[in-house]
């Protein structure tokens, strides 16, 4: 069923441990059980800087780890030819922006090769390809739940604040330095802080 080929198949840890359950208050974006579509009804894509003349490589594939399915980004990021990124991304709605203003941030259950990655958000205001709102995290060799509060997302090459009522796309990105990308995500979604 699942493809266990590639470097991410050999990452340590077989199944996400207890305690990695999704937050009680939130909205699931994807748990990768449906190979064709996310829980939002949209499909994941893989893209690299080759779309703008770079030479980085990017691959996307699915694995099964214990009782969970996961989506993996793998590739080699190169700064040659003004490049420097590999990513997997997902439109958050098929027919216009998604309103996430009732939520506090994005959570994900991830594992990887210990490198730093970014989660990028695009809104209706990010009209140029290089514009986004970015928050970083460091991948871990074992499955780990990461919370990225919306307050931590910094605008990149755009002077407007993040408009949570107009989200269009999210991307998991290896960017900005020469690196091997190996990142798998088993679940992700929006969460609400509880008092």
UniProtKB/TrEMBL annotation:
InterPro entries: Galactose-bd-like_sf, NADH-UbQ_OxRdtase-assoc_prot30, NDUFAF1. Pfam families: CIA30. Residues 42-177 form the NADH:ubiquinone oxidoreductase intermediate-associated protein domain. It comes from the Bacteria. Belongs to the CIA30 family. This is Complex I intermediate-associated protein 30 (CIA30).
